[in-house]
Amino acid sequence: MSSIIQLLPDHVANQIAAGEVVQRPASVVKELLENAVDAKATDIKLIIKDAGKSLVQVIDNGLGMSVTDARLCFERHATSKIRQAEDLFSLHTKGFRGEALASIAAIAHVEMKTKQDQEELGHNIVIEGSKFVSQELAVLPKGTSFAIKNLFFNIPARRNFLKSDIVEHRHIVDEFQRVALAHPNIYFTFYHNGSELFNLPPSNSRQRIVNIFSGKTNEKLVPVQEITEIVSIQGFVSKPEFAKKSRGEQFFFVNNRYIKSGYLHHAIMAAYEGLLKDGCQPSYFLYLDVPPHTIDINIHPTKTEIKFDDEHALYAILRSSIKHSLGQFNVAPVLDFDR
Ligand code: ADP
Ligand code: MG
Question: Where is the DNA mismatch repair protein S5 domain (predicted)?
Answer without folding.
Answer: 209-327
